[in-house]
Amino acid sequence: MSSSATTEVTGQDHVWSVSEHLDDILGSVRPLEPIELQLLDAQGCVLVEDVTVPVSLPPFDNSSMDGYAVRVADIAGASEEFPAVLTVIGDVAAGQGEQPEVGAGQAARIMTGAPLPPGAEAVVPVEWTDGGLGEGPVSGMRAHSAAPEGASGEVRVHRPVEARAHVRARGSDVRAGDRALAAGTVLGAPQIGLLAAIGRGTVKVRPRPRVVVMSTGSELVQPGEELAEGQIFDSNSFALTAAAREAGAIAYRVGAVADDAETLRSTIEDQLIRADLVVTTGGVSVGAYDVVKEALSSGGSAEDGVEDGSGIEFRKLAMQPGKPQGFGSIGPDHTPLLALPGNPVSSYVSFEIFVRPAVRALMGLPDVHRPTARAELAADKALTSPAGKRQFLRGQYDAEAGTVRPVGGAGSHLVAALAHANALIVVPEDTASVEPGADVEVVLLG
Amino acid sequence: MSSSATTEVTGQDHVWSVSEHLDDILGSVRPLEPIELQLLDAQGCVLVEDVTVPVSLPPFDNSSMDGYAVRVADIAGASEEFPAVLTVIGDVAAGQGEQPEVGAGQAARIMTGAPLPPGAEAVVPVEWTDGGLGEGPVSGMRAHSAAPEGASGEVRVHRPVEARAHVRARGSDVRAGDRALAAGTVLGAPQIGLLAAIGRGTVKVRPRPRVVVMSTGSELVQPGEELAEGQIFDSNSFALTAAAREAGAIAYRVGAVADDAETLRSTIEDQLIRADLVVTTGGVSVGAYDVVKEALSSGGSAEDGVEDGSGIEFRKLAMQPGKPQGFGSIGPDHTPLLALPGNPVSSYVSFEIFVRPAVRALMGLPDVHRPTARAELAADKALTSPAGKRQFLRGQYDAEAGTVRPVGGAGSHLVAALAHANALIVVPEDTASVEPGADVEVVLLG
Questions:
Q1: I need a labelling partner for A234 at 20 to 30 A (CA). Which of B183, B261, B272, B289 fits?
Q2: Best residue in B110, B215, B225, B238 for a mutation probing chain A (most A CBs within 10 Å)
Q3: Which residues of A touch B414 (CB under 8 A)?
Q4: What is the mean pLDDT of each run of 10 residues along chain B (446 residues)?
Q5: Residue B381: which domain range?
Q6: Across A184-323, where does the E strand assignment appear?
């Protein structure tokens, strides 16, 4: 990043393309250092280690049915008419310490998941027996607490089974030494289930980034308060905090900071302790009260910027909305900072196109971008776009029909239209007009 | 829901289809009562009120550019060669209290978002002026704090503008009395931004449901601890807590409860105070130690169930995995309870098919189901499925290719395979075999 201390008045000659600015951001932002987290705290995070299975699953041969553990020779040829009659020597329940040994002519009542007891070769489902009641086939066992006598007496078996029938073999799911999950896996519910199943209580992942969001502007009032003349409600700090959370971050909303360079600088400095990324809105353009630019360009002078490798560069982008943008790093830890424009639609579009990928890059996620699709433009008239700029229009995408319809106009203040959009329509730099029916690229939001 | 107190041994004749069970759940679960929440606490929730715009946006005519507020007659015919020279009478910054009145031959320096001062008719962008420096066109203003003299002196304007140029009219985004958002809207970042912009600090939504997740089984050990003989790690309470959060719930993981009916009953009773929905795993089948069934069938007897309208019914479903299921309500508030089978894959599939829709129904979300797609079965051999059952196999869906490939087998204990799946392949009840290349339905996970 080059110095920007002298750019306020004369500006920079270079107008950055969307891709150049994004490449600069993604080339600078490094994934966060991994930490060991409790399993459920790691949800949504990226695993940074190959996880090996320490103990085979299941860890022992066990029953896949509620039934009777038997020796197969004892029930060869059994039928409902000529049942095999076995002596029930006890119960084998899951998690029960001792197991009876099943001898010739014997059976142990066994529950799903319980270890196959010594001597037994297979399991007969309870539905293929009389359940020890001496009558016809049953559909289940009576609760042990209500009928403890079920663990003794005789049982009539109505069907033969082969050796290993209804037995889940030790290691049939995963074997000790197998790789359970590869580094780079994003941990969703089934992956967390697998890690728990193999006994992992904690896991090494990249944490969620802490994103500090602040809006700037002396005109901003907290929603719910009274507006005085010339004031508006702060919406950016709310929208972007929500967007940061949706991107996977832990987001802190600082709220609105007045247009005073010293106040802004000290607020940012205060917040750095809990920030992996700072996002500001407003104050980045060519006005005389653009304090973000003022505070961050002059706070570290050009020389400081070179010395410690940090500094924020303010740029003009060939983009609509979102022309003025700032990016760089700040503070002793070189915390990345993105300074977005203050118009609500500009800041939201800028967040989607630049900040969201940065948040996801910090998490180490493999895919940092929103999904895109191609759609047919459903519009009454052609869309016009300034030549040489990449334009992002708000649209309603209909996946079934494969169409997208613009909502609201190109104005960067149309926050109402934005709230009814589910996509951004991308009009490339070399396109000045898009006819109805044309094929366009859309960025799918949410 | 009918009584189930006498079903443990004899079972019920009726085998429920997946659809019947799901219909019963969705027919019983009512959306939670709305509460007023702070905006950012309402993220992801469903709005239950039509929100009307109390004050037009923007609330006053304001500048869309950094530049000069002028009267158009004063700059008619201006060019770089023959600039119009105006007296600068001061600054109009956003959020500044007093505004200068712009008279004939005068201009006020104005910042983006600042109110158009009285007397002015349009805004000339600073780039179309000499910025008061008496030289050529400039690309921006110097910061007011560094150069306060910029708010006085003369400015040369190089281009004329029409009346209202670069002015955003009061009410051009939304007008007071318009409906900003309709009841039923799900609040994402742009909707939260709009609500803030119109001054709403709080909003009435259905809250996220609090879901208590507990697994049952005396064989279960907390991951990270040592396994003794016959024990396995508790994975269900982790996987389902994560899945509940992913569905939108606030989830509490109680962990594993031993197979003792009294302990289970009192644990559930304790948890009811923080539960909008209770999910248990294990203990729902036909074994002699299936304590969930035992505790919840006998705890309220059949008569109690009828009296207070609560009670859990245990069923057999025509489903694989996931045959044994319990559903009903419990406690003084008739809190819904879903009792899932204990096998990790069975419980996860059951969660996806039954619990997730229940969570989303509690939130009042319009679409409670996972998206589905059609895909070509990519397999080396035909898939077989038990006749009369709806089977859910784990699969890797490739959206680009439009194919799905089974991962792992049909076994309900194959938690490793589940962790590598991104879809469930649905084999309908009337299908006993699916050939490679056949068109199948897939449920898209995550």
A1: B183
A2: B238
A3: 173
A4: 39 84 97 98 98 93 94 96 95 87 96 94 96 90 88 94 95 91 97 97 98 96 94 97 98 94 95 98 90 76 46 94 95 96 95 98 96 96 93 95 87 78 96 96 94
A5: 372-444
A6: 202-206, 210-216, 220-221, 232-233, 250-257, 277-281, 311-317, 319-320
